[in-house]
């Protein structure tokens, strides 16, 4: 029988996922007049929609490039940048756009969600949900799935933001939060790291069964997998939600078979699309974009979608007790002023259309962003000021050596070279520590390994407070510190204030304090870009800009590979 009746937010040992999603992006320029690179009117024309007669039935097949060679599709496997799991496991709700609040979300496994008060939500499930193997899904399964998504899947917001999840009936629950920060409830019910499955099936399944033939609550099931090469998923026949009008976009079945072909190099994915080996690719570099886009429009034969982006690449300084930065504000400021975010952006293969430099820890795509920040200095590249600050910090040129840690999969050698050159220019030596994703996710919690690092961060809530909370809420870290390995009580107090009341006053108070303390710097944000053949009339995306090939609109004469 199903055992779980209550789930509390235990503080368990869990590592932060390296990258939450495949895509990243969104933001402003480094200085007030730098702008966003591409205007809003320009972006409005690149929504991935072209004219044509649409197919009325289900397309037979679409082949989609996957940039992850190591995605584990089993439930509760930590995310490593792939998107296949998005089509396998249902969520309670589906967010219709980035930052959507409850009234603008679609129900999915939840028949209804009722806000009782700012901290309490009553959830009613459909009482006829079954997975791809016929198992019924009830409240116990949902509670179990939340517990496992936290413990095994590293969906850490469950631990930091959820007080409890209680069963109130066979198909009903009450979710109680410990914060009323905007977007938190919606994120908890829709996040890609939440996998809802049948508890009995999971506990009785072997590791191979969980990976090769999982019982899925989403609209697709796994047909085959060749590790590191391809994964094929197929629309679940007689999907549990037979009333199509109640299906959210995430549960669409516009195509019978989706093949995810692993191509990790952007140039190779572009060639694959040109050669019709794939029908759709997902990327964020300027060189690849140039294959399919010029003069403000897609080239003939192609469709292009430019997303607004939801993730930033940020530099964080090690603020642990006894670190070189802990009690030296001038040194922290020197390092941040020395770094040319724009040069790093271009060195990583981006341009003003694909990426931009943020003006806070977050981007202007996030709710709560303040327009006046666009006119202010945010550690804009200034080597002269950095040199002066280094002297004020008590260091002569060549006297200080810092260890810079990055993930091999997140930053290329050119980007690392720019950062090294920037700091050497003001007299700071740099030792590189470049590690794989797994080791990076371990080392970033170890104060002895690095002096500064670069890492992707985002706001699953869609509100700027979400990225701040993920970085500095001590309850989200097993040692009660932060992404910078310290706990600043004043910063935590400001975070609590803005989470409880995201007024402009509180948002600005947090932003300016974090900026004044010089703990970190937003370096660049990438737009998530999808290109396809023009047989795809409408490129559908989820709230974070990831492709939804199951919801693509296909031309009447569409055939995969043409």
What does this structure look like?
It is a single chain. With 562 residues, the protein is of the alpha+beta class. The protein is built from 16 helices and 24 strands. A six-stranded mixed beta sheet has the order 17-21-16-20-18-19, with helices on both faces. Helix 7 runs parallel beside helix 8 (286-292) and helix 10 (341-347) runs antiparallel to helix 12. The radius of gyration is 23 Å and the shape is globular. The N and C termini lie far apart (51 Å).
Largest sheet: 6 strands, mixed
Q: How large is the radius of gyration?
A: 23 Å
Number of strands: 24
Give the N-terminus to C-terminus distance in angstroms. Answer: 51 Å
Low-confidence stretches: 1-45
Strand order, sheet with most strands: 17-21-16-20-18-19
- The total of helices stands at 16
Shape: globular
Q: What number is the mean pLDDT?
A: 89
Helix % is: 10-25%
- The secondary structure category is alpha+beta
Oligomer: single chain
Measured by DSSP, the beta-strand proportion falls in 15-25%
In short:
The chain is an alpha+beta fold and 562 residues long. The protein has 16 helices and 24 strands.
Keywords, please?
single chain; 562 residues; alpha+beta; 6-stranded mixed beta sheet; 5-stranded antiparallel beta sheet; 23% strand; disordered N terminus
Strand and helix map with partners:
Blueprint: E1 6-8, H1 40-44, E2 59-66, E3 93-95, E4 105-107, E5 110-117, E6 120-125, H2 139-151, H3 157-161, E7 162-169, E8 172-177, H4 184-190, H5 199-204, H6 207-212, E9 220-226, E10 230-235, E11 255-262, H7 266-274, E12 280-283, H8 286-292, E13 293-294, E14 297-298, E15 302-306, E16 311-317, H9 329-338, H10 341-347, E17 355-356, H11 383-392, E18 400-407, H12 413-425, E19 428-435, H13 437-443, E20 452-458, H14 464-472, H15 489-500, H16 504-517, E21 520-526, E22 529-533, E23 536-538, E24 553-554
Parallel strand pairs: 2-11, 18-19, 18-20
Antiparallel strand pairs: 1-7, 3-4, 5-6, 6-8, 7-8, 9-10, 10-11, 12-22, 13-14, 15-22, 16-20, 16-21, 17-21, 23-24
